[in-house]
Structures are given as structure tokens and as C-alpha cells.
Amino acid sequence: MFKNRIVFGVLFAALAVILSGCGEYEKLLKSRDFQKKYEMGVEYYEKGEYAKAGTLFDQVANIFRGTTKAGTVKYYQAKSYYGQRDYMMAGYYFNELSSTYASSVYLEESDFMTGYCFYKQSPRAELDQATTYKTITAMQMFMVKYPTSDRITECREIITEMSDKLVEKSFISARLYYDLGYYKSAILALRNSLIDYPETNYREELMFLILKSSYLLADGSIPSKQRERFQATIDEYYSFIGEFPDGSHSREAKRMYESSNKFLENSNKQS
Questions:
Q1: Burial status of residue 111 (CB atoms within 10 A of its CB: 0-12, 13-18, 19 or more)
Q2: Level-2 CATH architecture, domain 31-121
Q3: Among 29, 49, 91, 245, fewest CB within 10 Å belongs to which?
């Protein structure tokens, strides 16, 4: 019984502290003491209470505009949203700081974080890659602007990672036509992927899919177009086997070559 009273007392005290804290925060939100809001915003930020900090900095941002604290308020506003993992808003405020406060001590960090927030929003390769392109551009601009920065290595790593994602996206998009059975469109898309990214790790797979799409297109064509398309398949076979003679697809590639060659030989006998 005594132990239960102790537990109840501790819980009651903790609840009182929480309610008191909430009450103080609510009063602060309604207050006109903007200096106090700024100071408590910094305090909440340093304690990791980013949502509370962000709300307070939102309230005072316009009040301090044009003052010596304006850049600092904008910085904490951006960092508070970043702490909440709201990378879109964080990036917006970092960019606003960079654009508005060119002499800020936070300028270099803000320029980097603008790009880094794009990086954090970059989706998996199957989805639209607009933010991936923005990440690369922002990081390249940062490297030009701050060539001696300690963040240069990280910028290069991010650019490489984002470039690899674009290569993967190109491969996935090109392969989609093949998977859907649109072999003529697949050949065009697969070729374009190779042109855009000639050093891609998917090169063997892309070239094999061009060969296979060419073969399947020929095999399903009307008789008047088969001869020309099987000849194109043989040409693709030579291109593929010339680069990957011992590749994982070499046996299937040879089978398609022999089948195409056999069709042409029979066609020549009949003509």
C-alpha cells in the first residue's frame, strides 16, 4: 500500500511538471515578448524539442527581419524543421538564408544544407528523380563556390550516389518497355540509356536486352519485315558478343543468333 502511494506520488509529480511545461509553452505562444520567444526557441532547439522551437521561430522570423539577429533566427528556423525531418521546409529556409543574408556566418552551411535537404528527399530509383537532379546541381554549385571546404569530399560522394541512382532509373525505365512487350520502343529506350550512360554497370544487361528485344520483335513480325529484323538481330549479336564473349547471357545470345541465322538461310533458299 505504501509502495503504491509512492508510485502514485511520483506519477502525479511528473504529470504536474508536464502540464506546467505545456502551460508555460502555451502562454509563450500567446505572448508579445518576442525576445523571450527567441531565447526559448534556442533553448527548445538545444534540448531537441524541434517542433516547439520551430513554431517559436516561425512567430519571430518576421519580427527580427532587418535586425542583426535575422540571419540567426532564419538559421534556427531551418535547423528546427530539419530536426523534424521536414526536409522540404528546411531546404526552403536554408535557401532563403543563403539568398537573403550573404554575409551570414551560417552562409556556407546553409548552401550545403540546401543541397543536402534535396538529397534527403531523393526517392528510390523507380520514382521521379527531379530532386536527385537538384541535389547534383546544388552540390556542384557548392563545390564551385567553396573549393576548399571540408565538405567537398562529402559533396563528391553524394554526387556519385545520385548519379548511380539516375543510371539505375534509366535502366529501370528502359527495361519497362521490354517487360511490357513493347520491343520496338524497348530497343530505342535501351539504346538511349547506353548513350546517356556509356560506362554504366548495367551495360551488359542493356546490350543483351537490345539483342533479345530485336529477336522477339523479329519473331513476332509480319513475314514482310522478318528478314530485315532477323538480320538486325544478328548485328546486335555481334555487338553484344564482341564486348561480353563470356558473359552470363552468352549462351542464350548464341541461341538467338543461331535461330535468326537459320531463318535467313531458309529464307534465302526459298527466294
A1: buried
A2: Alpha Horseshoe (1.25)
A3: 245
